[in-house]
Amino acid sequence: MSHPTDSTSKIGTSTPNTPKLSTAESGTAKPVTAKTGVAKPGVAKPGCIMCDSLYVKPDGGLPCWDDVGEDLILRTLDEQKLIAGEEEPVFYTPELKHVRRSFQAGELPYPDFCTRCPLNGHGLATSLEPRIMNVLHVEPAWLCQLACPQCFTPKERMGLKKPPYYMSVDFYRGLLEQLKNEGVEHIRFVHFEGRGDPLLNKELNVMVELTKKYFPDSFVMATTHGNYPYKPWMHTCGLDVLRLSVDGAFEESYQKYRVGGKLSKVLKLMADIKEARAEFPDSNMRLEWKYILFEWNDSDEEIREAGRIADEMDLRLRFCLTHTPGRSQRFTNAQDLHEALERLAPGTSYETTFQLRDEPSEADATDVLGEHAEALLTAAITRLRRDDEAGARQLIAEALTYDPGFEPEEAETAAQQLGSRLADILADSRFPATLSTLANLACRLEEWYAAEDLFERYLEVAPDAWDRAKVELTLLDLKVGNRLGRRVDEADRALARQRWKAERAVLEFDADIPDHCLSARDPVRRHLDLIAEQARPKTLFLLARLRRAGGDAESADRLLQACLSRADSGMRESAELQQADWQSSSVVGPTGWRKIDSWIHDRWLRLA
What we know:
By secondary structure, the chain is of the alpha/beta class. About 45% of the residues lie in helices and about 10% in strands.
């Protein structure tokens, strides 16, 4: 299970232990929805991932999660009963209720195991029968061709467990139907991973398709060593992320851990997936590379080469600090690694295993969703560097559906102009990395006020961020730039960015405008109909000029028409002249601010 760590953005990145934003912190408690999965506020006790998750093995075993939990099988499902719909409750089984009840009482459900388990404390116990499942961890196959040092050899596997070694499609379909019938409303994250390699199950694509059929809003990922040929179903089955575990950028170091594998095979798979994307324009599948850092693969040369490959293959590269034998002695903490990656492989990120995390945190699906949002936003920064603004905004929209959980239409609006939904982003985003990466995007998109607010919110939720001093200097620059103009040759753009403040200044002089309009970040956009109906003709005229200067011709025309409908003779004449001028010219850009009444310009200077 991965964890949100350092942002890949240039400025403002969260540390692995930075807390996520809760609904209580943001001040906006939300009801449970299938899209966001944000739980209703209630009493939550420290627990573990098993409080609202499920781990299922090919033979029907329900272990108490991974590692230590593998030795504690809570129950074994009967395949025939499951297929026939006659199995006892699975997610609300007495064993899982015991886990939840124990943590709610402040006790360990299985002391002998829990005291040795790294997942203890990584999760919350909120209900005996949670309707939202955080993680469905599915092991499609027990077998694997590789012999990694910290795992079992292919020969050992046959003697450790009895068949079946592969989960059948009928079993998995029965499991999903059982969960639906029990009342599970939504599964946030379905992860195909385990002690064996998922791609050895030849029907993995069908299992992914079934997941999307029964729980269409689930985020689905499969983790594999990647020593396989490309298959078109990787793009078409509905998989959200295919994560490749590849620990090295050179063949010799790669094979020291991935014994029996070949780096050349994995690189061929990466290249084929990239090449095939054009054939599947509707595919949302993202490719991710997980690189565990050992003492034999952590050199500058190899890290730099991994970054080059990731850039060439257009995929997400995430390095991992581990606690296992052979771990990197060069990088023993997150900050040292981050500083090295900024120099050697910019645009990459990292994570740590649970055993290296200093403080408990929720080990649930929101971690993975936050990772995905961050990956998409980082990819958007890359697109902007390549002058592909349209592609960048498309990625921003997709990211915002994961964090803060916008509906697609809302996300599309926000992606076109971050300021249009900034209040919601600031209130509802759950991850510091989302805020910091969006702030960097806002800077590149020249949405300077949005960048300022996003960086400020980032520091609020990550007060101990390692790069706080750097962010504060950036904020100072933004504040000066936003109020006084970044440079003389940028004065016009600075004025355009101040349009909404100038509009508020106009509205403040109109006693007919309700107070709640003035509290909105963009009052004219949010309350256009009300303002058009209630504002005085002079107010409407000035607002129309401001909107036109900012490029919003549609709103400007609406306001000017409202002005004409109620204006006296003097104001009507001015409005008609303005209308004629607009009809004979194109939309006025930022330089149109030079023509705005001197009163508004002077008012803006006082505001700045």
